[in-house]
Design brief:
alpha+beta, Immunoglobulin-like, 4-stranded mixed β-sheet, 2 helices, elongated
């Protein structure tokens, strides 16, 4: 038992020190979130207003029969989703208007995000 005690104390300290025993800080402070649905290369909604300079979460739902490439090259944001898939991106936008596109549907796949 004497040999086991230092190991148990080390594991307990590691458990608490790494935060495994408590909810993650990122989960406890929920990010403001918006859901964006894409169907046949069309974003819904087509325009969003979000707070500038604050981390936000965009939940992306691809309802279309083909893949989606959610992208803004200037901000270095890119997310590819398979058909019928759901994912998210966490971004922090500077003030202004930011155009995101579906690279696979350039003609119809545009989402304007206004950060104020």
């Amino acid at each position: 038992m004497r040999r086991l005690l230092p190991h148990l104390l080390f594991v307990a300290a590691l458990w608490l020190g790494l935060g495994w025993a408590a909810p993650a800080r990122a989960q406890s402070a929920a990010l403001p979130s918006w859901t964006v649905t894409v169907s046949d290369g069309v974003f819904t909604p087509r325009r969003l207003e979000v707070p500038a300079g604050q981390r936000i979460k965009l939940i992306l739902i691809n309802q279309g029969p083909g893949p989606l490439e959610f992208e803004n090259a200037d901000l270095h944001v890119e997310k590819i989703l398979a058909a019928k898939a759901e994912s998210f991106v966490v971004i922090k936008l500077p003030p202004g208007e930011h155009m995101f596109v579906d690279e696979f549907n350039i003609a119809t796949g545009e989402l304007l995000i206004v950060a104020r």
